[in-house]
Amino acid sequence: MTLVDQTEKLRHPEKAHKPDNPIQRKPAWIRVKAPMSQEYNETRQLMRGLKLNTVCEEAACPNIGECWKHKHATFMILGSICTRGCAFCNVETGRPDLLDPHEPDNVAEAVGRLKLSHVVITSVDRDDLADGGAEHFARTIRAVRAASPTTTIEILTPDFQKKKGAVEVVVEAKPDVFNHNLETVPRLYPNIRPGARYFASLQLLARVKELDPTIFTKSGLMVGLGETKEEIGQVMDDLRSADVDFLTIGQYLQPTPKHAAVDRFVTPEEFDGYSTVGRGKGFLLVASSPLTRSSYHAGADFEKLREARLRKLGAAAA
């Protein structure tokens, strides 16, 4: 057994028994340059100094070089170890960390030092906590608001499954965008997202709008896992029924041989088609491309969201 094999088994023990899925060579349209900029190194040093985790690193995001060059990091709170074992995700799984009581203030300090006009804050799943980490999310939102009042805040939360009152706690802290990713079509949930429930995730997004219609809601999908275009269309309809404003669609990339295999690489033209279909179904915004991820270009997209809402309200008033 190689050192790499041992490391991966420690990182994803629930996948150790699974057969290897060879990692396919990426097509030209999805290859990215290795991160090498001075800004990348400065951002990395800041995160280490404040003992903060980022989903950019933990999930092996292909856009890390581009985003960190502009010092746009996505913070991952509630520790670095997830209690779920999704087949697509590179975040470490196992016994979770103790909550760091200084993490909300450290995130707020990093936001200020990076001079972020828009910040994305996500987390691991914490099924072990009574509230799923909802109060920690709320504390982090409040800390960022206090330290950087003009920064808009986007959160990407777990599903808070069976955590009564959790979503209410987070909504009360008033993030500007509440994101929860469906990830894939319901048929693929048992294999790709086994710890989650499709309709529970939909209900969470609908509940956010019920509690505070002024908060933008957002969800994301991966494609290339074996879904059909008809299934993606149905998920779009389901999201619109939950009054979701913004949909992101990106190519699934296999992190290790133990993760789910890529069924196929979706072409840029197909992504353009999904964007057209989504806008036709009534989303305020659809970001659809091979390298699209939940937090990719999130600040610029937030401005587009606000403009789209204003246009919609203006048209309704006319």
Sequence-ordered SSE layout with sheet pairings:
Blueprint: H1 3-11, H2 38-49, E1 53-54, H3 55-58, H4 64-69, E2 74-77, H5 103-114, E3 118-123, H6 134-147, E4 152-156, H7 166-172, E5 177-179, H8 189-192, H9 198-211, E6 216-223, H10 229-241, E7 246-251, H11 268-280, E8 285-288, H12 298-317
Domain Radical SAM core: 68-284
Family: Belongs to the radical SAM superfamily. Lipoyl synthase family.
Binding site for [4Fe-4S] cluster 1: 56, 61, 67, 295
CATH topology: TIM Barrel
Count of the domains: 1
| Global outline | globular
In the CATH hierarchy, the architecture is Alpha-Beta Barrel
The N- and C-terminal alpha carbons lie at a distance of 68 Å
Helix tally?
A: 12
Rg over CA atoms, rounded to whole Å, is 19 Å
Q: What is the percentage of strand-forming residues?
A: 5-15%
* Element order: H for helix, E for strand: HHEHHEHEHEHEHHEHEHEH
How many strands appear in the DSSP assignment? 8
- Percentage of helical residues? 40-55%
Mean pLDDT: 91
What is the name of the CATH class?
Answer: Alpha Beta
Q: Could you name the ranges where pLDDT drops below 50 across 5 or more consecutive residues?
A: 1-8
Question: What's the arrangement of strands in the largest beta sheet?
Answer: 1-2-3-4-5-6-7-8
Based on helices, strands and strand pairing, what is the structural class? alpha/beta
